[in-house]
Amino acid sequence: MAVQDRRQATIYEVAQRVGVSIATVSRALRGTDYVAPETRRRVLAAVEELQFRPSRLGQSLAEGRHAANGIVFPDLSGPYYSEVVLGYEEVAAELGNSVLILATHGRPDPARKVLELARRVDGMVVMGRTVADGIVAQVAETGVPTVLLARAAVGALDTITADNDSGARRLVEHLLGHGYRRFAYLGDPDTSPDVTDRYGAFRAALADAGHTPPRAPVRCAFDVDAGHRAARRVLAGPSRPQALVCANDEVALGALAAAAELGLTVPTDVAITGWDDVMAARYAGLTTVHQPMRKLGATAARWLHDRMAGSQDAVRREVLPTRLVVRSSCGPHSAETEV
To answer: Which residues form the HTH lacI-type domain (predicted)?
Structure first.
């Protein structure tokens, strides 16, 4: 016969059992000098009797402050991160949580900064390849509720990602359908877990279809200027590819500008695709893979709130769906379509 999980006691029940305020319970648990020894003894006895496990959210509430969420981003520049932050902050505000944001790009000793932030917040989201798995594990071991976003799972932590594999395979299938056979991939897979997955699926899809993938990516940062420089190098070379598959829309927008400067027509002379489906991609006619940027942030905020509230549910791993958005930059079509 299965044993049902007992409902967890709340800080209110402990306070009621002892006959004190929830603030007194919180102070007793933190061991401050403002609680009489006898009161602390009674609080601890009630905690043991009720099997109360204090949550970070409950402690914040008892202390009369908003729970603070820390979120660690690789960078804050560019529309992708802006959309994720908007989704996160919208939900955090609904839940009454404040948000502290740390961007690690260009910062000396990011691991130390992340560990410092963990001491100041009630819960933390770590996104992308900001710090090593060992640092994430250190944060989790301190008891700070931790959720991972757009990176591989670490231990028993909740993890949210987008479906890079299916999106990349649909994109390659579509480009092969246009007859393209010579490809270049613009972006650096070593600096982003998402791009690692996309590039791997891109190569696998070409190989599965009987075509030889490019020997290596054309490594560049994930911004318009970097995409522009990388595309100029490739497109001005002796063996111009038929299609540039870009790691994100910003790189692709830079590639579109480079093609125009070189007098090349898109898609007649070269096809160009992106990833993310940011607003500018829609106006540029860029074929891309849409990923739910705001939903990524919103889901992370909800999951972290649950863990801060003391949720003991099983570890959650969710892969949010992506979809191919076909526009004019990859070939002739009657209208924009989604695949």
So the answer is: 9-63
